[in-house]
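Re: that backbone. Tokens:
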């Protein structure tokens, strides 16, 4: 039986993601009991190594094992750099495990949008988002074309407030030829606070990863579409 307050774990690599994801779950999935786990060296060490190492993959899997042993009925990894570890986790545990932006990408591809823009304020976020989107297109949208456009504004990363950040992103989108996009996707959780301001500027829906993930887990854990499950017999 699905519990009325399922335990959802979130593993974070940066402290800011904790607050942003918590706010999204409070708004979109208030029934959940949220368990936040933070290792604030995960992202820095991946950057220093030039990507994920076997040691970092094992470290993330140990963190996943920790929350599964603690009874997590759903899991969200909020750092896109560790998305590849999710595929391993899904093979090891019979519990819904989501990549940071997976639900957002699926929602965008399921929607009526022909031209989709991806905006970011840090360079690595752009290719990571595009790679995930392109991998999902044959599965989620095999019969409808989609046109992707990307925009990067590093000025947005150091802007003083949400309005300035949104303006930088909108300007970058316009410069990239994406002003005619039907929807805009935020490639980083750190940009979630500017969602509404950016939507006002561009006049189209702006989707964020944290909110989409909360809605997907809500559907899986409360509607009968999914179920909390026991962990697999093999764990790292």
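Recovered sequence:
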């Amino acid at each position: 039986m699905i519990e009325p307050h399922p335990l959802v774990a979130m593993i974070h690599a940066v402290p800011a993601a904790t607050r942003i994801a918590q706010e999204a779950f409070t708004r979109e999935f208030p029934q959940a009991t949220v368990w936040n786990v933070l290792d604030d060296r995960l992202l820095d060490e991946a950057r220093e190594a030039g990507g994920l190492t076997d040691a970092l993959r094992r470290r993330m899997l140990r963190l996943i094992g920790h929350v599964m042993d603690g009874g997590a009925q759903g899991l969200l990894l909020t750092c896109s750099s560790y998305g590849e570890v999710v595929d391993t986790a899904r093979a090891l545990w019979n519990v819904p495990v989501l990549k940071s932006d997976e639900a957002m990408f699926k929602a965008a591809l399921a929607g009526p949008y022909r031209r989709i823009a991806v905006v970011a304020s840090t360079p690595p976020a752009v290719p990571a988002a595009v790679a995930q989107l392109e991998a999902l297109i044959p599965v989620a949208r095999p019969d409808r074309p989609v046109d992707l456009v990307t925009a990067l504004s590093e000025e947005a990363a150091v802007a003083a407030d949400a309005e300035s950040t949104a303006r930088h992103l909108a300007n970058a989108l316009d410069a990239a030829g994406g002003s005619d996009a039907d929807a805009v996707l935020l490639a980083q959780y750190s940009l979630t606070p500017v969602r509404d301001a950016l939507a006002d500027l561009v006049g189209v829906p702006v989707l964020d990863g944290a909110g989409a993930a909360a809605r997907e887990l809500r559907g899986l854990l409360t509607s009968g579409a999914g179920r909390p499950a026991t962990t697999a017999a093999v764990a790292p």
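Residues 102-209 form a domain with the Rossmann fold fold (CATH 3.40.50.1860). The first helix runs from residue 15 to 28.
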